[in-house]
Design goal:
Number of strands: 14
Radius of gyration: 16 Å
Strand order of the largest sheet: 1-12-5-14-3-2
Shape: globular
Strand content: 35-45%
Largest sheet: 6 strands, antiparallel
Length: 190
């Protein structure tokens, strides 16, 4: 099974623009430059009501969480597995063309539990050096399964090893919204 699928969302560019405006004028995401920032869902949905309206046409579930993934220019990798293995949506916000979310087979490598900046847990590949995007020590090279250029929203299996590879020609940060729902949306991958 391919771990992602493009989803057609009406008004996706308007929603992306409004999400960017929200991030720019109502958060410290760009100033703090943390890789992951969970937003106040109700505030976002008041500012961008089209997001909930359009996603409800596709997803038979309510939005539970909206976070912004911030990647600095020329930052690659960060291959990991999200805890819970949920099917989530990635929504392009800014500077996503030419960058990819790549999915990998672990190729026999083990994972270790880590804590994120908000206390959330995720799993890192034990022999993976995220800074240099390579396997170290006795680890096996990761095997790329596929990649999604985030030119429109996707649903993806966050339980598959994945990482962000930014557009090498873009000198601005890549911003994406990751959206979780209150019900399993695995059916959207079929």
């Amino acid at each position: 099974m391919i771990p992602f699928k493009y989803i057609s969302v009406k008004q996706h560019q308007l929603i992306s623009d409004k999400l960017y405006d929200y991030v720019l004028h109502h958060t410290d995401v760009l100033k703090n430059a943390l890789p992951w920032t969970t937003l106040k869902k109700n505030d976002v949905l008041k500012f961008v009501p089209e997001l909930a309206v359009e996603l409800r046409k596709i997803v038979d579930a309510d939005i539970e969480m909206i976070s912004i993934i911030h990647r600095k220019p020329k930052v690659y990798g960060g291959v990991h597995i999200d805890s819970g293995g949920l099917i989530r949506m990635l929504f392009p916000v800014r500077n996503c063309a030419g960058s990819y979310t790549k999915f990998f087979d672990l190729n026999g490598n083990t994972v270790i539990e880590k804590k994120g900046n908000e206390g959330d847990t995720f799993f890192a590949i034990s022999q993976y050096d995220a800074v240099n995007d390579c396997i170290i020590g006795n680890g096996n090279p990761l095997k790329e399964i596929c990649a999604a250029e985030l030119i429109s929203p996707i649903v993806f299996d966050s339980g598959i090893a994945h990482g962000v590879y930014t557009n090498p020609d873009c000198l601005e940060p890549r911003l994406t919204a990751t959206i979780a729902f209150n019900k399993d949306i695995k059916y959207l991958l079929q």
